[in-house]
């Protein structure tokens, strides 16, 4: 697979380390009343969809940036990739 | 139709005209007492044990494709019980015992061959870890033998003992481990379940659950609605998709695991051998092909095919372990979808929905577990209590902090 890095262009997926669902960027509030259950969900439960999946890839053997890659888990087609910092600063999920 | 040596002889001299289909192709009834979703190894074994061990009737297995079309036909056929943790080891040893009696129990030649497994170690620390694992195996009666380098040089002389980076120092052997004919296992259970009155319904995809007031009423399928008092889901690889239809999120990611087979060769590898310095395992099928595999690809996938970097990685492992493998030509490679759970261990449990039961999360170790998984899931469905060897496989163990993490890598499914 080739990942379209927003700054570096097409890069071999082998340069990246896979982390998981991009929802992991949204850490629950540890002071919330429901924090224990929230963190249990956060750590252990996944949507795990068949189809379009937004996920975190770390460019470990490259510029060490985190990317949010949108990929189809049924076909392995990569639909888009953006810097996780951009996603975070937009406040989008 | 029972199989026997006499039957084989009789058919041989009468033109093989007396063989019959191994199972029927019934129309689904309006309702069943128990429906098993998933006609793979675990689902068929569950149906068999519900009928044969627990004496229940009015059971159906629903399979969206053909029987055994998923991971039961895609694995590397290894059976073993060399686990370490208390939650796992008795279960896998129970499975090993069921393998040993399987052919007689099912009256079917599933070609169970206890040709041993050897896990190689490459450092002193790894030998210590294997000694500890071997002792844990002895606690459940699984047995285990620590091998020296001299032992190995005699048994498997073709290994690359003096590899500069990963010299082979010894190994842990489980003599009772080995291989089984994976499709034959599915066929054996299917036939045995069919003979005991289980309806095996193929080309019948479950498209939804009918649940009212937290109680299971039945399943919507591509062949219409079918009522059920109890529904057991055994669809590893697709567990998240199926359970999402019941509104559940699981502690599972789906990942693709590739496997490989070489052209047929003369007998060369005596049992199963695993490389301890990388992830590579190999055995030789009775047909002669070297069957081998390694790591999962490492990203969420439902594609049933992998990518080339892992092919390269697996083959590199093989070359480091036994350079002679480089002379064999690769015949085929394929992929299967694994339920990678958050602690690397499976789930056999009830759910919060009355009448809905889950068998999932087998990671890439589901094949060896097939007999015990079926037995324990049938026990749960029949008695509403967990089987004594499967008490640790609860769905709520993650929330309660009782994970069973053999590898100790935490909630990162692609590392298990």
Would you write up a description of this structure?
The complex is a heterodimer of chains A (93) and B (416). With 93 residues, chain A is an alpha+beta fold. Chain A has a single domain, classed as 2-Layer Sandwich (Folate-binding fold). The longest helix of chain A is centred in the middle third of the chain and has 10 residues. The radius of gyration of chain A is 14 Å and the shape is globular. In chain A, the strands form 2 sheets. Chain A has a 4-stranded antiparallel beta sheet with strand order 3-4-5-6. In chain A, strands 1-2 form a two-stranded antiparallel ribbon. Chain A is built from 2 helices and 6 strands. Chain B is of the alpha/beta class. Chain B is built from 10 helices and 18 strands. In chain B, strands 1, 2, 8, 9, 10, 11, 17 and 18 form an 8-stranded mixed beta sheet that branches. In chain B, a hairpin with a 5-residue loop joins strand 17 and strand 18. The chains are: A alpha+beta (93), B alpha/beta (416). At the A-B interface, strand 3 and helix 1 of A face helix 7, strand 12 and strand 15 of B.
Share of residues in strands of chain A: 35-45%
Could you estimate the helical fraction of the residues of chain A in percent? 10-25%
Q: Per DSSP, what share of the residues of chain B sits in E-state strands of 2 or more residues?
A: 25-35%
The main sheet of chain A orders its strands as 3-4-5-6
N→C terminal distance of chain A: 24 Å
Average pLDDT level of chain B: 96
Count of β-strands of chain B: 18
Subunit organisation of the chains = heterodimer
Termini Cα gap of chain B: 43 Å
Write the CATH fold name of chain A. Answer: Folate-binding fold
Going by CATH, the homologous superfamily of chain A would be Folate-binding superfamily
CATH hierarchy: architecture of chain A: 2-Layer Sandwich
For the secondary structure, the number of strands of chain A is 6
Concise summary:
Chain A is an alpha+beta fold and 93 residues long. Chain A is built from two helices and six strands. Chain A has a single domain (2-90), classed as Folate-binding superfamily (Folate-binding fold, 2-Layer Sandwich), CATH 3.30.2270.
């Amino acid at each position: 697979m080739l990942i379209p890095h927003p700054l570096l262009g097409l890069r071999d997926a082998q340069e990246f380390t896979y982390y998981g669902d991009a929802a992991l960027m949204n850490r629950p509030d540890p002071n919330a009343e429901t924090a224990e259950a929230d963190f249990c969900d956060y750590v252990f439960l996944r949507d795990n969809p068949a189809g379009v999946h937004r996920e975190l890839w770390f460019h470990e053997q490259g510029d060490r940036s985190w990317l949010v890659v949108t990929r189809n888990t049924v076909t392995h087609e990569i639909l888009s990739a953006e810097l996780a910092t951009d996603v975070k600063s937009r406040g989008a999920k | 139709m029972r199989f026997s040596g006499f039957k084989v002889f009789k058919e041989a001299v009468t033109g093989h005209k007396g063989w019959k289909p191994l199972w029927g192709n019934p129309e689904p009834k309006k309702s069943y007492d128990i429906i098993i979703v998933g006609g793979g190894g675990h689902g068929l074994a569950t149906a068999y044990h519900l009928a044969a061990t627990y004496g229940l009737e009015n059971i159906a297995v629903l399979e969206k494709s053909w029987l055994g079309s998923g991971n039961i036909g895609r694995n590397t056929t290894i059976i073993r019980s060399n686990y370490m943790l208390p939650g796992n080891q008795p279960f896998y040893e129970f499975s090993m015992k069921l393998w040993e009696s399987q052919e007689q129990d099912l009256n079917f030649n599933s070609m169970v061959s206890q040709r041993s497994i050897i896990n190689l170690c490459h450092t002193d620390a790894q030998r210590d870890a294997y000694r500890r694992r071997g002792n844990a195996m002895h606690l459940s009666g699984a047995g285990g033998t620590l091998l020296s380098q001299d032992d190995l040089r005699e048994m498997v002389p073709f290994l690359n003992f003096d590899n500069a980076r990963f010299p082979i120092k010894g190994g842990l052997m489980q003599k009772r481990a080995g291989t089984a004919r994976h499709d034959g296992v599915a066929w054996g259970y299917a036939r045995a379940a069919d003979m005991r009155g289980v309806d095996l319904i193929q080309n019948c995809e479950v498209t939804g659950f009918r649940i009212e007031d937290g109680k299971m009423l039945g399943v919507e399928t591509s062949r219409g609605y079918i009522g059920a008092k109890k529904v057991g889901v055994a669809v590893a690889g697709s567990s998240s998709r199926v359970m999402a239809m019941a509104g559940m999120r699981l502690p599972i990611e789906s990942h693709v695991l590739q496997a490989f087979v070489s052209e047929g060769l003369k007998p060369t590898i005596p049992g199963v051998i695993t490389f301890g310095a990388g992830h590579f395992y190999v055995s030789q099928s009775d047909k002669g092909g070297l069957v081998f595999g390694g790591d999962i690809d490492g990203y969420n996938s439902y594609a049933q095919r992998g990518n080339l970097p892992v092919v390269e990685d697996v083959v590199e492992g093989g070359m480091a372990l036994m350079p002679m493998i480089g002379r064999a030509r690769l015949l085929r490679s394929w992929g299967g979808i694994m339920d990678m759970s958050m602690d690397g261990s499976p789930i056999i449990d009830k759910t919060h929905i009355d009448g809905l039961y889950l068998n999932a999360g087998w990671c890439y170790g589901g094949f060896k577990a097939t007999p015990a998984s079926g037995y324990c899931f049938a026990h749960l469905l029949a008695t509403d209590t967990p089987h004594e060897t499967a008490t640790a496989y609860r769905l709520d163990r993650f929330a309660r902090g009782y994970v069973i993490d053999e590898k100790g890598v935490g909630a990162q499914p692609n590392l298990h």
